[in-house]
Amino acid sequence: MVKAALLREQGGPLELCEIELPAPGPRQVRIRISAAGVCHSDLSLANGTLTQPVPAVLGHEGAGVVVEIGSEVTRVAVGDKVVLNWSPACGECWFCDRDEPYLCEGSVASEASAQPYATLADGTPVYAGLGTGAFAEETVVDERAAVKVPDQTDLSDVAVMGCAVLTGAGAVFHTADVQPGQSVVIIGLGGIGLSVAQAARVAGAHPIIGVDMSEEKGKVAAEHGVTDFVPSGPDAARAIRKLTGGRGADHAFDCVGGAVTTRSAWSSTRRGGVVTVVGVGSKDSKVEFSALELYWFGRTLHGCIYGRSNPDVDVPHLLELAAQGEMDIAALRTAITDLAGIDKAFDDMREGRGIRTVVSL
Ligand code: CXF
Ligand code: ZN
């Protein structure tokens, strides 16, 4: 039995309990989780904004050490340090063939999260949020959900890689393809937004304009590459135009997701500008623009799952950038807690306190 933070029902609190994990199947690995970031999607899965079968162990931004492997595992060995990938691709479908693993049809994650992966002491089946279940001392996942990292990696420093950094940096490098000297607007300065900022700085963007309700986040963002801060609100678009030659930015990233923020991102860009929606909005949130403005402004609108990253390729690349001092992944962690502190981390997130809380296990 291992300790876990259990979501008994959506809308309820997390409860500390013990779960029984199965022995890994032939292509599965058992991982001792060292650290797990608390992502906004965990909050959405916990409060019912996103669907989640229960009881469930959430947590998908994790890092740990492989402690057991199935008989056919080839990617990792016992003792390897790994970062979790919440969207491990099948490698065989139409999308995987076209190098779009983030769109994988046979997504191992959706299969894994639809089937129970563990049990409670009384035999009740337990589901793993996004197939990973990182808010527990240990988990069992498909080997493709484990991305090996170098032995010297500090796992607490890199836990946030598994979602925020891959998503934010991927959006800059793979989806928007930001070029040196281009202007960038980032709406929402949380873990994803600051990963966008760091990656935009690496890409040579200027200016990098951060937009958020919290002035405090604006100050923190300056250390992650944001050159100018604009408070959210009705005057934001005018302030952004002033910073971008009166035209609007080359790129805008909506790191919140939803009608209001996507529309602000849209209005922040110049004619011919590129809008990249990175945050996960709700299915009822409808973004509006007229057919005429779509034509006349000539803008491009991208959605991007997981930043269009391929974790097997991008994790090593991002760790290299961190080793060279070009990115500061560890600085995204602004609080450390234990399994009992996740509900408080959700409160902090709702109130806009801090960037990322990391659960230390
Ligand atoms: C999200 C993506 C959409 C479904 C829920 C999880 N990913 C990570 O935060
Ligand atoms: Zn996430």
From TrEMBL:
Requisite cofactors: Zn(2+)
Domain Enoyl reductase (ER): 11-359
SUPFAM superfamilies hit by this protein: GroES-like, NAD(P)-binding Rossmann-fold domains
Superkingdom of the source species: Bacteria
UniProt xrefs under Gene3D superfamilies: Medium-chain alcohol dehydrogenases, catalytic domain, NAD(P)-binding Rossmann-like Domain
Pfam assignment, any one: ADH_zinc_N
Keyword entries, A-Z: Metal-binding, NAD, Oxidoreductase, Zinc
Family: Belongs to the zinc-containing alcohol dehydrogenase family.
Name assigned to this protein: Alcohol dehydrogenase catalytic domain-containing protein
Organism: Gordonia hydrophobica
